[in-house]
Amino acid sequence: MTVLRTVNLVKIYQNKHVPVPAVRGVDLLVDEGEFVAVMGPSGSGKSTLLHMLGGLDIRTSGEIWLDGQRADTLSESAWALLRRKKIGFVFQFFNLVASMTVADNVELPALLAGVSSKEARARREYLLDALSLTERADAAPAQLSGGEQQRVALARALANKPALLLADEPTGNLDSRNTRDVLRLLSEVHRDGQTIVLVTHDARVASLADRVVSLLDGQIVDDGRIARRRPGRGGAGEVIDLR
Amino acid sequence: MRLHLLALLAKEPAHGYELKQALEQTFGSAYPSPNIGQIYVTLGRLEKDGLVRAVDVEQSNRPNKKVYYLTGKGRDALTDWVDEPTEGPRVRDEFFMKLVLAPLTGIADRMALINRQRRHYLALMRDLNELAERTDQGNQVALLLIEGAMLHLQADLDWLERCQEDLA
Ligand SMILES: Nc1ncnc2c1ncn2[C@@H]1O[C@H](COP(=O)(O)OP(=O)(O)O)[C@@H](O)[C@H]1O
Ligand SMILES: [Mg+2]
């Protein structure tokens, strides 16, 4: 089943009356359970694309379909409702609720979606544990490092088991140990069927995906699977051959 | 491999098979396991150059085995190796040559070359991820070697992106 579809999606910003085309005709199809990595140089339109998919930025033209429903023509409030129900979003600059603890930030989306508080707590405990954040559960976001805030944002986005996870550079601020936690969690939820569209520069993250979409100047220049290499052949020597 | 074997022999004399095991134990699955033939060939050359010497050790019910030990000259070669700075990786990239030269032949489209190369690098990265998962988490040497390979690959991908911006 198709979770997400865009048809000729376009975004043109106005910068002092000069049009800035950021996304120029993107056709994208994402099936249920698929993990799609979006790569491309800085300024190629990755964040703009993701923001439109998440209803955070209004498209200039084209169509966005979510779970079989046309989304881009909805009213702002209907879009917001759909977003809360179906989408988990990790922003490039994580927006946590400053007045709430880490634990409450993570539980909030599930509670808003009507999940029982017991279930919401269990999910929160699982996610914080997977991201090595259990000890920070009672902290306020302002007390956290950038990397910790980023992981809390990921936990929050996954709290609801959303139909679609959208993540913009979710490991951008992490050191390699914390990146490993995120990699493990992403593989785990993907294995459990989570649909993911994720923007990244980090090849370790991208290599977990089923498919890689490459953007250049607001257009898709490549969209394809990462080939499975023949397992067992050659062994480590073929992989590790430092120049 | 010459100097790797000398380094192992600096710790204690050993026969060929023990050297193979020592390499495997130190580097884990992250290092291309050397075959025993290669090790004996290398030991033979080291002996010819006077860097190691072999003694026959008698074994009951089995043919004699050769135990190798480091000579003074071998020790000096090892000291030189450790003391001198090591060359960093150089960019001698076959793909880049292809990217620059192939369009001259009229058979290749740069965008297509770059896209295919990106997928190839990502497939390699996936193998490294899987290798890291299979590796004993206590083997820091092996894990660091894998991480090094990953960082090199990341640099190659970043460079590929720059090539795409400026050449494609
Ligand atoms: N709010 C905005 N107003 C004007 N231009 C913008 C705005 N947001 C992004 N852009 C421009 O759109 C292009 C794509 O930006 P972005 O989607 O952030 O790229 P990426 O995430 O790939 O780095 C860039 O040229 C950027 O300067
Ligand atoms: Mg961005």
UniProtKB/TrEMBL annotation, chain A:
Keyword Transport attributed:
yes
- Regions annotated as coiled coil: none
Q: Name one Pfam family in it.
A: ABC_tran
CC annotations in GO: membrane protein complex; plasma membrane
Name the Gene Ontology molecular function terms of this record.
Answer: ATP binding; ATP hydrolysis activity; transmembrane transporter activity
Start and end residues of each ABC transporter domain: 4-242
Among SUPFAM superfamilies, the record links this protein to:
P-loop containing nucleoside triphosphate hydrolases (SSF52540)
The reply to whether Chloroplast figures as a keyword in the UniProt entry is: no
Write the record's keywords in alphabetical order, separated by commas. Answer: ATP-binding, Nucleotide-binding, Transport
The identity of this protein, by name, is Putative ABC transport system ATP-binding protein
Give the species this sequence originates from. Nonomuraea dietziae
UniProtKB/TrEMBL annotation, chain B:
Does the keyword section mention Translocase? no
Which Pfam families does the entry mention? PadR (PF03551), Vir_act_alpha_C (PF10400)
Q: Which residues form the Transcription regulator PadR N-terminal domain?
A: 5-79
Which key words tag this protein in UniProt? DNA-binding
* The keyword DNA-binding is annotated on this UniProt entry: yes
Q: Which PANTHER family match?
A: NEGATIVE TRANSCRIPTION REGULATOR PADR (PTHR43252:SF6), TRANSCRIPTIONAL REGULATOR YQJI (PTHR43252)
**Protein name stated in the entry:** DNA-binding PadR family transcriptional regulator
Q: Which species is listed as the source?
A: Nonomuraea dietziae
